[in-house]
């Protein structure tokens, strides 16, 4: 057989790359095993970025859940990956499927997800409960990639996290927001692959719910927080509207700015509001006089005039007593809320005003949700 012409070989390679770029990530991990040329194409950094760009966004949900152990051991975290469609049709089955589940170590927890990478924090027990040592690493559950640990960060509690991607430097960054005993708020920034943490002084606010990670959108991490809180045990009844602010941290410049709240909020909610992201939109949810849930959408991220109220519904109709947690998916059409019972999840579909209640978890477990996209990303 005559040797293949270089131009023909190149065209064939480009054709294969084009076809493979539309194939879901999971089958591609098997196609890599077919031959060396396919493995070379699928593993190439250019192809990985092209495939990520063409992957369907918001198609996968990543759930973090605890599996309660003994009092001495504490709680063990795990991950569950599920397609949006499977989860909506049968949440319990989607969460219980063994092939979708991944375990974490006892001292691990998830601090964010971006481009198919999960940022895992590790903090072993420290005899001084006000101080903790933290290491972070990146994990791609699909391909089994695990990065080297970050340098150790010793911090005072409480702390809040954020994880995202800086396209300008092609790097993944984690941000920890820290408040010391004097009330001073600072941030520590680490770029994976680097050798040290960078300190950002005079951070303007501290997230009042440290369980909520910073929300990644448009190259920024965003938290809803209190302006210059002086102590940990603040009383929400004393919080005023001017103390609330959204802090947006730019991962390219390592600078922060304030995003104003919607102009239609004229009084402080009775419960702590919730910030969220789905797709390319920032959401703000809050209660109204303890009777209704109100949801705002920033239709153009960064444009404070694009805040639009798109939902107001009574807690009575939803079957919830208060605003404990909310996750938004399906382009802002479906809301998952914590029900009257700790292990009951309530699904509200605003397209037909329907409400569905499901007892998803048992055995003293806890569930939280993040956006996720399966990818072949493996930072170097």
Could you describe the 3D structure shown?
This protein has seven helices and 26 strands. By secondary structure, the chain is mostly beta strands. The chain has two domains: 6-51; 56-372, Kelch-type beta propeller (Neuraminidase), CATH 2.120.10. Strands 4, 5, 6, 7 and 8 form a five-stranded antiparallel β-sheet that branches. A hairpin with a 4-residue loop joins strand 9 (159-166) and strand 10. It is globular. The two termini are 39 Å apart. The model has no long low-confidence stretch (mean pLDDT 84). Residues 12-51 form the F-box domain. InterPro entries: F-box-assoc_dom_typ1, F-box-assoc_interact_dom, F-box-like_dom_sf, F-box_dom, SCF_F-box_component. This is F-box/kelch-repeat protein At3g23880-like. Residues 1-25 form the signal peptide.
């Amino acid at each position: 057989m005559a040797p293949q012409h270089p131009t023909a070989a190149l065209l064939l390679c480009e054709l294969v790359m084009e076809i493979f770029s539309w194939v879901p990530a999971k089958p591609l991990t098997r196609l890599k095993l077919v031959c060396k040329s396919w493995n070379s194409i699928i593993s190439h950094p250019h192809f990985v970025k092209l495939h990520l760009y063409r992957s369907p966004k918001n198609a996968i949900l990543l759930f973090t859940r605890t599996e309660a152990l003994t009092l001495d051991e504490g709680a063990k975290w795990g991950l569950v990956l599920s397609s949006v469609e499977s989860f909506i049709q049968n949440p319990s089955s989607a969460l219980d499927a063994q092939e979708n589940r991944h375990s974490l170590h006892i001292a691990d927890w998830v601090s964010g997800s971006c481009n198919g990478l999960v940022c895992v924090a590790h903090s072993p027990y420290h005899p001084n409960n006000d101080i903790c040592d933290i290491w972070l690493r990146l994990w791609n559950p699909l391909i089994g990639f695990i990065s080297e640990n970050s340098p150790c960060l010793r911090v005072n509690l409480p702390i809040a996290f954020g994880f995202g991607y800086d396209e300008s430097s092609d790097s993944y960054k984690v941000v920890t927001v820290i408040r010391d005993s004097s009330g001073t708020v600072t941030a520590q920034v680490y770029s994976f692959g680097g050798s040290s943490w960078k300190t950002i002084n005079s951070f303007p606010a501290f997230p009042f719910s440290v369980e909520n990670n910073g929300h990644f959108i448009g190259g920024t991490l965003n938290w809803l927080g209190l302006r210059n809180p002086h102590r940990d045990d603040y009383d929400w009844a004393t919080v005023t509207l001017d103390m609330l602010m959204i802090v947006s941290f730019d991962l390219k410049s390592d600078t922060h700015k304030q995003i104003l709240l919607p102009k239609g909020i004229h009084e402080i909610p009775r419960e702590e509001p919730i910030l969220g992201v789905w797709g390319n939109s920032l959401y703000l949810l809050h209660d109204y006089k303890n009777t209704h849930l109100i949801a705002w959408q920033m239709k153009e991220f960064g444009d404070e005039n694009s805040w639009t109220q798109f939902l107001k519904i009574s807690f009575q109709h939803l079957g919830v007593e208060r605003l404990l947690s909310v996750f938004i998916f399906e382009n802002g059409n479906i809301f998952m809320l914590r029900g009257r019972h700790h292990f009951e999840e309530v699904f509200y579909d605003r397209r037909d005003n329907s409400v569905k209640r499901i007892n998803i978890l048992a055995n003293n477990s806890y569930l939280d949700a993040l956006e996720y996209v399966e990818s072949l990303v493996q930072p170097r």
